[in-house]
Amino acid sequence: MPTLARVVEVLEGFYPPATAQSWDRVGLVAGDPEQPVSTILLAVDPTLAVIGEAVGLGADLIVTHHPLLLRGIHSVAPTTAKGAAVTDLVVNDVALYCAHTNADVADPGVGQALASACGLEQTEALTVSEAQELGRVGELPDSVTLRDLAERLGAALPPTAGGIRVAGPADAPVRRVAVLGGAGDSELAAVRRSGADVYVTADLRHHPALEAREEAHARARLRGGPGAGVAETPYLIDAGHFASEWLWLPGLRDRLAAALPDSVSIEISTVRTDPWDFVVGATPPPEPGDDA
User: Fold this and answer.
1) pLDDT in tens, 31-90
2) Contacts of 104 (CB under 8 A, 6+ apart)
3) CB 233 within 8 A of CB 217
4) Are 4-100 and 105-243 the same fold in CATH?
5) Above 70 in pLDDT, residue 164?
6) φ, ψ for residue 78 (rounded to 5)?
7) How far is CA 126 from CA 117, 133, 137, 140, 188, in A?
8) Does domain 4-100 have CATH number 3.40.50.1860?
9) Which of the 8 DSSP states describes residue 36?
10) 65 and 99 in contact (C-beta within 8 Å)?
């Protein structure tokens, strides 16, 4: 049975901590490096429910994408969520390891997993930050409609209450696709520079998304406008933060299974850590001329 130190060594070989962004907090959060590891639970977020699932499984280690302690705290008393999480980990001898932006930039990593779900085979970096490549951009083997791409993603992603939001005509052809798992509206300028037909990301806020679409409409109008065969790109697909990064977990499970002894059980969490539970009134706007 490997020690926690050995599993951390494997994880840091996959996702070197030095490749994380300077503001990030990655690595071992809790656990004795000498403790044996027989069961590992993989999850997007280290929530109380995920920790409870790990305890129920008898897991020795949780590996998550998002950090537990990204921002400074001044107490680990169990009267707060962070304190309760730390307490539950320590009391139950469950270690926690986080691989965040170092997993985003890895190959394979979060970006490549989202690119593969879209059907992209050969990709390049969308942008560079702190000497690290962020996001991916590439071309599909064949052009598909925007709806087809969204439905392809929907089949690969875990179900969430919010589903997938799309900005653009359903029948618009797309081939060049940019992706960035998690929150991505800060990279809309990079998407425009990349020449992508569609941008797949998450957490698209109203103003950045609306301004990106308005800029696309303005450029199309200068080139002849809608109806003159000019596409109003890039279109936008908001796949959800949790869902777009969950895609990384199956690949991580396979890599860990190949690197660790067969005696180690590796499970993917069944807890949906997307914060939304249901939506009301999620209907598309009426088509022009529709009296409904």
Assistant:
1) 999 999 999 999 999 999 999 999 999 999 999 999 999 988 888 999 999 999 999 999
2) 110, 111, 134, 181, 182
3) no
4) yes
5) yes
6) -70, 10
7) 17, 7, 5, 15, 10
8) no
9) B
10) yes
Question: What confidence tens digit (pLDDT) does each residue in 165-205 have?
Answer: 999 999 999 999 999 999 999 999 999 999 999 999 999 99
* Per-residue pLDDT at 226 exceeds 90: no
Residue type for position 223: R
Rounded to two decimals, the pTM is 0.93
Residues marked as binding for a divalent metal cation? 65-66, 104, 241, 245
H/E stretch holding 133 reads strand 132-145
- Cα separation, 152 vs 145, in Å, equals 11
Q: Which pLDDT band, with edges at 50, 70 and 90, does 281 fall under?
A: confident
- Find out whether 172 and 104 touch, Cβ atoms under 8 Å: no
Strand-pair partners of 129: 132
Domain boundaries, the chain: 4-100, 105-243
Q: Is 285 exposed, middle or buried (0-12, 13-18, 19+ CB in 10 A)?
A: exposed
How many C-beta neighbours within 10 Å does residue 150 have? 23
Question: Which one-letter amino acid corresponds to residue 251?
Answer: G
Question: Of the candidates 64, 24, 26, 72, which has an alpha carbon nearest to the alpha carbon of residue 45?
Answer: 64
Predicted confidence band at 230 (pLDDT cuts at 50, 70, 90)?
A: low
Collapsing DSSP to helix, strand or coil, 27 comes out as strand
Which residue ranges make up the annotated binding site?
65-66, 104, 241, 245
Cα distances (Å, whole numbers) of residue 69 to 13, 27, 55, 181, 264? 22, 11, 20, 20, 27
Would you state the CATH architecture of domain 105-243?
3-Layer(aba) Sandwich (3.40)
Q: Name the DSSP letter for residue 186.
A: G
- Closest among 247, 184, 263 to 42, alpha carbons compared: 247
Query: Side chain identity at 127, as an amino acid letter?
Result: T
